[in-house]
């Protein structure tokens, strides 16, 4: 066969390496593929010649913002640097693999990760959100784990904007349609409405999986002569250019629809893939494994090869196709879902194939591991890619993007809610306060999420011990001992807008508090950093500050970041979203039977408020309801968070509390209502002692969002022991009331009586009103 | 035969040696989701769970069969429509209709498979509100003389989780009248009909009472701490569903409780 570019047995031109060397001046569409001039020049320099079309496809997707973290890498390093030996003690696999792995004890390990699928979920909400779940679940499988639960933090535009229903219906149905079909309980998440997310909704997805230590798998291709296999769904034309085009550019009305760039999911294929991978792991039939996500085969081959000890040779015509007209470049870039790549020793080929046949999963052998240090991809025997895989997977461009504190930041921080126009007529009379509480818990961000969570299966697996609306989701890992994990995700875009450094820390503090509230010991962090364009120095400053704040806080709380994801370019035109670092914290429970739910149940139990209350309404839900955003977010006190966490964990372990609920958005008012509505059990509350001690009025006591607080229900028999513990630890605690099981009311001194039925109706009516 | 489960071994030690001899099969199709839960329920009831694979051609001498929930083969055609043709299903149909009257319980997708197999009449279509729904559901046990309901009192109300997309039970009026007349409506939704099912029907049986199908999930209400009362504060117990599995056990080992 001739090597000229025109000679092919297919209908398109094959640009071989040999051809590329002979035709240095051929024009290549690098700009259309998202590469900048300096990046293309770098590719030419690395190769010593112009890239072939296939090589260009690989570099363009792997060097995109989404895959290479080129704008954030310099800052993300802090997560690896600000780590003590103590923090590393339980980390079995750290940042850089598909997901981090943490030691749970008793031979168990847990892996979890949170990722974004924001842009696809705006273009095509159902498939975007569905494949977001699919992608994160495959990351978990790739580590050798059985996925055991998912969570989904969601941020949409204004609740009453006509387009919000489109995105909301699609995203929720997509998460449900895909997640429910995998047999994974959905145990929590978040829901925020804010017009800043109108054109850039945030659809993040978290998955957690468990495994025995010996089952941990890594993505590397080692052992010369071992075979490389691609299995799962066939490769089609969906998602081509998705990674580079969708995730790295903001939307522009003038360009044609990017719908075809969104992948289409098949949850059944994924479910079968999960079971078939677990069977492969059980039989120790794979040496290395990598899921195919963004950048598809480009990513899988280059990462497997560069993490291994040699090279790899792959024949691309062996890839099973859904669409036979795909070009080599398209096959390399395709983001078709439900695919995995593995490395198998020749001795295990028959056993591997038997597992594939049992689950009726298609597979094709693509090539083998070599010792050349090169990734070589051929097309009908002709070399179309010949690269050092590290240059594709790891040596992409890194930018030190300029950043500076925005000029407007001072003015925003000076604009406190207290005394503002929006603060006029602050409620104070009993009837006004009752109306305020009701308005708060019916507001878009504080209302019941049942409309969403009732579309998700929280029961499957039979190990769910807590799920939304409790503070954290709790899943049992070991049925013999009750060992389990707790997970919470949190972010507050408004706090982070007011102060990115502390806002990011507040997100971590809240997730940490939520996990501790359930009784679990916080162990590890995964973060999904959703920001605007890094090319805007204001946004870049927000990102840099958030990472600095988060990494400092992780160090202070003693829990390491084990993985995560950065999503940039979340902006419409020049208007970015609020900086939204979504932080997931994972904790451990020795026995999930001891976990603490958020609602009270037993009549006569004492209700305590832990922590002190300051006048902190800036950035609060109350100020948001009044249309104000300015001032400084609540103060961060990580030492207090740690002390509170220890009290909650000890109280849970020793049976000193029957319920615990953290105070965050909506303050004490929200916590009291939620604790009452959880099991439909009322309470009588008096806040005079809190007001006297902390020097705040009743409105502030109810609506301030001071951090480091929780309400707990304490059995009478445990009251002395519990208060002694708080006293010994020097932590503020005040008895604010008593559980009144049969009253059907929440009575707060100085506030008109709130009937639980009316509260529930207000709480639950909001989402159905807007979304049917 | 597949091995279940791969991680998080279900407690397979039978509490009562008299019951442990009873072998209850749990079928797994590609796309089945609640098989591990059904295995756990069988164990907690005291029997020995036996994993059955859709491609098996023998029932492995089981004394009863549970067809659990999920999306068999993806259910992209019509729920249960393909599963009905699995090799194992022909064995189940044969055994259920034989003189031995093998007890068969179909839960959710299992119920859909049983109607597709014509072991039970009627069919399931998409919920009337067109959404997937997961909630705790109160059911009334209308008939406690089937193989799977003997441990309940007639008229007893129980709370078990319900979760489905295609759970609206339909049949023609004649069939519905016959089911009512013959006492074959085994469970009815109480208080709220979650999917638009005709006459609030949640579950039915065949004429002999050995084959029962229902949309709600008793296998998710078998263990303290992990059922509706703990998770949602609905109902008074986490274990209202355990009676399905103890009922069939008592039937298998000879009736006396």
Give a written overview of the molecule:
The complex is a heterodimer of chains A (772) and B (257). By secondary structure, chain A is of the alpha+beta class. Chain A is 37% helix and 21% strand. Chain A has 28 helices and 28 strands. Mean pLDDT of chain A is 93; it is low at 1-11 and 242-259. Chain B is of the alpha/beta class and 257 residues long. Chain B is built from seven helices and eleven strands. Chain B starts with 16 loop residues before the first helix and ends with a helix. Residues 1-14 of chain B have low confidence and may be disordered. Classes of the chains: A alpha+beta (772), B alpha/beta (257). At the A-B interface, helix 9, strand 6, helix 11 and strand 14 of A face helix 2 and strand 6 of B.
Q: For the largest sheet of chain A, list the strands in their spatial order.
A: 8-10-7-11-9-12-13
Structural class of chain B: alpha/beta
Radius of gyration of chain B: 16 Å
Domains of chain B, number: 1
- Low-confidence regions of chain A: 1-11, 242-259
* Distance separating the two termini of chain B: 32 Å
Average of per-residue pLDDT values of chain A: 93
Name the CATH superfamily assignment of chain B. Class I glutamine amidotransferase (GATase) domain
The oligomerization state is: heterodimer
Find the CATH topology of chain B: Rossmann fold
Looking at the structure, what is the overall shape of chain B? Answer: globular
Give the fraction of residues assigned to helices of chain A: 25-40%
**CATH top level class name of chain B:** Alpha Beta
């Amino acid at each position: 066969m001739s090597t000229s570019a025109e000679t092919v047995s297919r209908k398109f031109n094959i640009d071989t390496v040999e051809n590329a060397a002979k035709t240095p001046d051929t024009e290549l569409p690098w700009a259309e593929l998202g590469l900048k001039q300096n990046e293309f020049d770098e590719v030419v320099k690395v190769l010593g010649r112009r890239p072939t079309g296939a090589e260009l496809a690989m570099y363009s997707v792997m060097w995109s913002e989404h895959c290479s973290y080129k704008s954030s890498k310099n800052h993300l390093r802090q997560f690896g640097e600000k780590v003590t030996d103590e923090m590393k003690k339980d980390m079995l696999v750290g940042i850089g693999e598909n997901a981090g792995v943490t030691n749970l004890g008793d031979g168990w390990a847990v892996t979890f990760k949170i990722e974004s699928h924001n842009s696809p979920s705006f273009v095509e909400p159902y498939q975007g959100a569905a494949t977001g779940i699919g992608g994160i679940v495959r990351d978990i499988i790739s580590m050798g784990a059985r996925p055991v639960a998912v969570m989904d933090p969601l941020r949409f535009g204004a609740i009453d904007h006509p387009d919000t229903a489109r995105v909301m219906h699609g995203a929720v149905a997509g998460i449900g349609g895909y997640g429910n079909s995998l047999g994974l309980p959905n145990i929590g998440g978040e829901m925020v409405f804010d017009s800043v997310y109108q054109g850039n909704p945030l659809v993040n997805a978290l998955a957690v999986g468990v495994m025995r230590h010996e089952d941990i798998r890594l993505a590397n291709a080692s052992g010369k002569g071992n075979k490389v296999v691609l299995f799962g769904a066939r490769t089609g034309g969906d998602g081509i250019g998705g990674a580079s085009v969708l995730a790295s550019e903001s939307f522009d009305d003038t360009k044609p629809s990017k719908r075809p760039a969104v992948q289409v999911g098949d949850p059944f294929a994924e479910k079968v893939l999960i079971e078939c991978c677990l069977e492969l792991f059980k039989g120790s039939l794979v040496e290395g494994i990598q899921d195919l996500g963004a950048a598809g085969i480009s990513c899988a081959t280059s990462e497997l090869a560069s993490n291994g000890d040699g090279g790899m040779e792959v024949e691309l015509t062996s890839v099973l196709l859904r669409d036979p007209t795909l070009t080599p470049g398209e096959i390399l870039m395709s983001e078709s879902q439900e695919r995995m790549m593995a490395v198998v020793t020749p001795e295990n080929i028959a056993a591997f194939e038997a597992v594939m046949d049992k689950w009726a999963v298609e597979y094709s052998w693509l090539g083998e591991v070599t010792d050349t240090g090169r990734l070589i991809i051929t097309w009908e025997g002709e070399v179309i890619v010949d690269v050092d895989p590290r240059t594709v997977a790891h040596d992409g461009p890194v930018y030190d993007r300029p950043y500076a504190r925005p000029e407007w930041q001072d003015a925003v921080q000076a604009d406190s809610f207290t005394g503002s126009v929006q603060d006029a007529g602050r409620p104070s009379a009993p009837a006004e306060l009752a109306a305020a509480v009701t308005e708060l818990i019916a507001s878009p961000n504080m209302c019941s999420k049942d409309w969403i969570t009732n579309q998700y299966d929280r029961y499957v697996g039979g190990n769910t011990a807590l799920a939304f609306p409790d503070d954290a989701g709790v899943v049992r890992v070991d049925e013999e001992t009750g060992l389990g994990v707790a997970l919470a995700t949190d972010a507050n875009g408004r706090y982070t807008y007011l102060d990115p450094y502390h806002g990011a820390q507040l997100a971590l503090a809240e997730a940490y508090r939520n996990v501790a509230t359930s009784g679990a010991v916080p162990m590890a962090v995964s973060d999904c950093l959703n920001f605007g364009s890094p090319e805007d120095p204001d946004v870049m400053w927000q990102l840099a500050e958030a990472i600095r704040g988060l990494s400092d806080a992780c160090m202070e709380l003693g829990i390491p970041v084990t993985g995560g994801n950065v999503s940039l370019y979340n902006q419409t035109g020049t208007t970015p979203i609020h900086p939204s670092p979504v932080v997931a914290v994972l904790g451990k429970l020795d026995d999930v039977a001891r976990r603490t739910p958020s609602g009270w149940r037993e009549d006569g139990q004492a209700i305590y408020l832990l922590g002190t209350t300051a006048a902190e309404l800036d950035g609060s839900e109350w100020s948001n309801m009044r249309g104000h955003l300015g001032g400084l977010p609540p103060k961060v006190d990580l030492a207090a968070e740690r002390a509170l966490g220890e009290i909650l964990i000890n109280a849970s372990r020793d049976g000193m509390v029957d319920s615990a609920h953290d105070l965050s958005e909506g303050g004490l008012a929200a916590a009291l209502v939620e604790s009452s509505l959880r099991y439909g059990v009322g309470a009588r509350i008096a806040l005079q002692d809190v007001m006297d001690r902390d020097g705040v009025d009743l409105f502030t006591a109810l609506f301030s969002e001071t951090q480091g607080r929780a309400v707990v229900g304490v059995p009478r028999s445990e009251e002395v022991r519990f208060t002694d513990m708080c006293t010994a630890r020097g932590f503020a605690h005040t008895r604010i009331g008593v559980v009144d099981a049969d009253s059907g009311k929440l009575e707060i001194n100085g506030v008109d009586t709130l009937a639980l039925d009316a509260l529930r109706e207000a709480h639950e009516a909001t989402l159905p009103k807007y979304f049917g | 035969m597949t091995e279940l489960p791969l991680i998080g071994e279900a407690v397979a030690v039978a509490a009562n040696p008299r019951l442990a001899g009873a072998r209850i099969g749990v079928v797994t199709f590609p796309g089945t989701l609640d098989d591990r839960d059904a295995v756990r329920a069988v164990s907690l009831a005291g029997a020995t769970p036996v994993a059955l694979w859709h491609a098996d051609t023998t029932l492995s001498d089981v004394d009863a069969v549970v067809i659990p929930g999920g999306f068999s083969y993806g259910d992209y055609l019509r729920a249960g429509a393909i599963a009905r043709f699995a090799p194992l299903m022909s064995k189940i149909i044969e055994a259920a209709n034989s003189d031995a009257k093998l007890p068969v319980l179909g839960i959710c997708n299992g119920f859909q498979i049983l109607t597709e197999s014509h072991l039970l009449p009627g069919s399931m279509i998409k919920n009337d509100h067109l959404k997937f729904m997961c909630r705790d559901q109160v059911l009334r046990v209308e008939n406690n003389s089937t193989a799977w309901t003997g441990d309940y009192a007639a008229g007893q109300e129980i709370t078990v989780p319900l979760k489905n997309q295609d759970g609206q039970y339909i049949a023609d009026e004649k069939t519905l009248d016959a089911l009512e007349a013959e006492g074959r409506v085994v469970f009815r939704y109480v208080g709220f009909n979650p999917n638009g099912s005709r006459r609030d029907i949640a579950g039915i049986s065949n004429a002999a009472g050995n084959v029962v199908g229902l949309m709600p999930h008793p296998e998710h209400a078998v263990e303290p701490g992990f059922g509706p009362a703990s998770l949602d504060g609905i109902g008074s117990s986490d274990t209202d569903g355990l009676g399905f599995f103890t009922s069939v056990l008592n039937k298998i080992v000879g009736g006396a409780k």
